[in-house]
Design a protein that fits this description.
CATH class: Alpha Beta
Strand content: 15-25%
Structural class: alpha/beta
CATH architecture: Alpha-Beta Barrel
Radius of gyration: 19 Å
Length: about 290
């Protein structure tokens, strides 16, 4: 089973120049893709800057040659599915087929009420996500379609152009209703790292979706730096269960994830993806996880 690595880099408090530098460094280091986040404002840090997700993906696609671009994940409630369908196809064509649609029903409830989007209750948000994916599939078929759902109504709707090929869909989560959506629509299932212990149990519920994991990484360049790396990773990312180690230790860790069934890692570096860290990770970790 092959393992691929994508860089997860939230576009928070970063300039476009810094984002492009990281994307180019990731591409040179052997990463397969780059993914950002999708919020109106950064959770728990609402006064910090954050660029819009689809615009950021477009900008990064324009400044790279091979990286797959996308988000982990777009919030369904932020966009009407016809708008999202058009945006996704446009970016698919602009990037030469390098766009993946990561989408979910929303992880940060406060922004639903703060910015007036809905539905607010999680069960309704899951139902809306399913409707959105049904509408996307129909619009991307190139056929004129009608749709009469709980949240979306379309009549004689038609979209052109259609995708260059199949736009891959990435959905995260581990709840029973979310897993059913993954089974019916996803190419990739992003299992929360906190639920990895349930992977064997839940894997049969997602059909043919391939498994990805988001992992915060504290890269120890030199053993003498371990204490400083551990402190920084724990201070900034302690809630996300960071893995901290040297290249050899990280390669062993990701090898174990591969044995569990993971085929893609979204790496979220505790030093915010410094180019030298990406280069070292590519040379000493990615090369050991073919």
């Amino acid at each position: 089973m092959l393992m691929e690595f994508h860089l997860f880099l939230p576009q928070m408090r970063l300039s476009f120049e810094r984002l492009v530098t990281a994307a180019k460094a990731a591409e040179a280091a052997g990463f397969r893709g780059i993914a950002g986040t999708d919020h109106f404002a950064p959770p728990t840090a609402e006064h910090h800057t954050l660029y819009e997700a689809m615009v950021t993906s477009t900008w990064l696609a324009a400044h790279t040659q091979r990286l797959v671009v996308g988000s982990l994940v777009l919030c369904d409630a932020f966009r009407h599915p016809a708008v999202l369908a058009r945006e996704a196809v446009t970016l698919d064509h602009a990037s030469g087929g390098r766009f993946e649609l990561g989408i979910g029903w929303g992880s940060w409830t406060p922004e639903f009420t703060r910015f007036g989007v809905g539905p607010v209750e999680p069960p309704a948000r899951v139902r809306r996500l399913r409707e959105t994916l049904e509408v996307l599939r129909a619009l991307w078929s190139g056929e004129t379609m009608d749709y009469h759902g709980e949240f979306h109504q379309l009549k004689d709707a038609y979209l052109a152009p259609t995708p260059l090929g199949k736009i891959p869909v990435v959905i995260g989560g581990a709840g029973p209703k979310t897993l059913a959506v993954v089974r019916d629509f996803a190419d990739w299932w992003n299992i929360p790292v906190s639920d990895l212990h349930r992977l064997e149990q839940t894997r049969p519920q997602v059909g043919g979706a391939r498994v990805s994991v988001q992992q915060v990484v504290g890269y120890v360049h030199d053993k003498a730096d371990r204490a400083a790396v551990t402190e920084a990773a724990t201070r900034h990312f302690g809630a996300f269960n960071p893995v901290i180690g040297t290249a050899t230790e990280l390669a062993d860790h990701f090898g174990r994830l591969r044995e569990q069934g993971a085929e893609r890692i979204y790496t979220w570096f505790s030093d915010f993806a410094q180019p030298e860290t990406l280069a070292a990770f590519g040379e000493h970790v990615i090369s050991q996880c073919p």
